[in-house]
Specification:
Elements lengths: L21 E8 L6 H9 L17 E7 L2 E7 L9 H13 L5 E7 L6 H10 L6 E6 L9 H9 L6 E4 L8 H10 L18 H14 L11 E8 L10 E9 L2 H8 L4 H18 L3 E9 L7 H6 L3
Parallel strand pairs: 1-3, 1-4, 4-5, 5-6, 8-9
Antiparallel strand pairs: 2-3, 7-8
Helix pairs in contact: 6-8
Length: 315
């Protein structure tokens, strides 16, 4: 079975597992905005990756963990592979290529509605070089439902020789269970990799930063979403039950120019207020308590091309 490069890994995860139990790692790849994160969230059954309509939303390898009686699947949601225009793009593409090395199966996701493009063909060529089983997932089936899917599936099959081709609609849950069964059958027999109640290996700081970024991505425009990075500096939880029970979260939103800073703040602070409110509400559901969210907007000039800043921001 492949190795999982995680400090948090807990071999066997404590509880006995039945004979024939399967476990392994599935990497989810595709070009931007084909629905990779939505598929991972649907298969895990909980939100582990943020989702927006902005291409390039996912910037890290996000691991979501599904545990059922007969199997445990560790999904690795990866950034969309795109033409590298900045150092950050290059690093994200490298991250994807590194991630699919040594996994047990690969989900190659394409967009049924958008049609097959050069990015899909490029990825198909790269995946043809690997020995790992590749399942082609034709997502957003609901946009082409009926007779419109037949030519899409024909075109999809021409991309390469895949272990299976599964049409899905992650937003509606169509064929999600079927896709899960297909993937489980490709995994080796092995004990659980993580405890049964664990759904992601993200730190709480990373999760909070991603939630904050998600809320602001869809409230700005033009090039600004791609120029936003979020860093959570501190999360302070009450030390005992006698305190007020409020979790304090301190975060910075970084943009690349002063003009972008004004857009993220908004007229009269309207954008940052709305983004803060939505992020705070979701964080309160996660922490199960009130949250005080302190978000500041700062300028880090051309951070997407600055190696030191990229590393500082976690890319």
């Amino acid at each position: 079975m492949s190795e999982l490069d995680l400090e948090a890994i807990l071999s066997g995860a404590g509880d006995p597992v039945p004979e024939g139990h399967r476990a392994g790692i599935v990497c989810v790849v595709g070009r931007p905005n084909v629905g990779k994160s939505t598929i991972v969230n649907a298969m895990v059954g909980e939100k582990v990756s943020i989702v927006t309509d902005v291409p390039g939303t996912t910037r890290n390898a996000i691991r979501g963990i599904l545990t059922r009686d007969d199997a445990q699947v560790v999904f690795v949601d990866t950034p969309g592979v795109a033409k590298p225009r900045t150092l950050m793009n290059e690093r994200l593409n490298d991250l994807v290529y590194d991630t699919w090395q040594g996994v047990d199966a690969i989900c190659f996701v394409i967009d049924a509605n958008g049609g097959i493009g050069p990015g899909d063909r490029f990825l198909a060529q790269q995946l043809a070089e690997v020995e790992t089983p590749v399942v082609l997932v034709v997502n957003k089936e609901d946009r082409k439902r009926g007779s419109g899917m037949a030519p899409v599936l024909t075109d999809a099959a021409s991309l390469g020789d895949f272990t299976e081709i599964v049409p899905t609609s992650a937003t509606e849950g169509f064929n999600v269970d079927l896709l899960l069964d297909v993937l489980v059958d490709l995994l080796p027999e092995a004990p659980r990799l993580f405890p049964v109640d664990m759904v992601s290996d993200q730190s709480i700081e990373r999760l909070a930063a991603e939630i904050i970024r998600e809320k602001f991505l869809t409230r700005v425009f033009d090039e600004v979403p791609h120029s936003i990075a979020v860093v959570v500096d501190a999360i302070e939880e009450p030390e005992d039950e006698d305190e007020d029970g409020v979790v304090d979260v301190y975060a910075n939103i970084y943009v690349e120019r002063d003009s972008q800073k004004g857009i993220v703040i908004g007229k009269g602070g309207s954008v940052i207020k709305e983004g803060n409110t939505l992020a705070r509400q979701e964080l309160e559901a996660i922490f199960g308590s009130k949250v005080f969210l302190d978000v500041r907007v700062k300028v880090a000039p051309n951070w997407q091309r600055n190696p030191k800043l990229l590393s500082r921001f976690g890319y």
